[in-house]
Write a structure and sequence with these properties.
Elements: H1 3-15, H2 19-25, H3 28-41, H4 45-63, H5 67-82, E1 86-89, H6 92-102, H7 114-128, E2 132-138, E3 141-147, E4 153-154, H8 160-163
Antiparallel strand pairs: 1-2, 2-3, 3-4
Length: 166
């Protein structure tokens, strides 16, 4: 499957209301790890490890199709995908902005466990391997989205244009 076919499959699944397929096509780790790393870095040192564990656990739950994650993240994301009118290659500037939003910071807090550091580093490497970035044309908006080398899609999990009220 080409990267464009991956996006088209996600849009088709969203239009069909197939939330399981949409969720399976999202790379939840690449989409969420940068947000987790940034958030735990802002917390009090004594709660960083526990918070990272919680965030990484949410990624694991999303991968397993947790019903709560489906309602909170997948359903609104699928609604956005279903509204896609066109898919275009992103400009170099849009690509770099999206990669920067997904990027997992290198200066992780020392309070994180070795396993958490390794896992976040793996997600960082996956973000850096992304080459294909597109924009979804939805009404008058163009929303950036990446296709990973594993043919999964990624977007910044904290981007309310993708998962929030609009």
């Amino acid at each position: 499957m080409t990267t464009l076919e991956t996006l088209r499959s996600a849009v088709a699944a969203a239009r069909a209301g197939d939330l399981a397929t949409v969720s399976a096509l999202v790379d939840w780790g690449v989409s969420g790890a940068g947000l987790i790393a940034a958030a735990v870095s802002e917390l009090r040192p004594e709660i960083r490890q526990r918070s990272a564990s919680s965030g990484l656990g949410e990624i694991d739950r999303a991968v397993l199709g947790d019903p709560e994650i489906t309602e909170v993240m997948v359903r609104p994301f699928a609604a956005r995908l279903a509204m896609t009118r066109d898919i275009r290659p992103a400009s170099p500037e849009v690509r770099e902005t999206l990669i920067a939003a997904l990027r997992v910071r290198e200066d992780l807090p020392p309070e994180l466990s070795p396993e958490q550091v390794v896992r976040l580093a793996e997600f960082r490497a996956q973000v850096e391997a992304i080459e294909d970035v597109f924009v979804l044309v939805i009404d008058a908006e163009e929303l950036p989205i990446a296709v990973t080398p594993r043919n999964t899609i990624a977007f910044p999990a904290g981007d309310e244009r993708m998962t929030g009220e609009w």
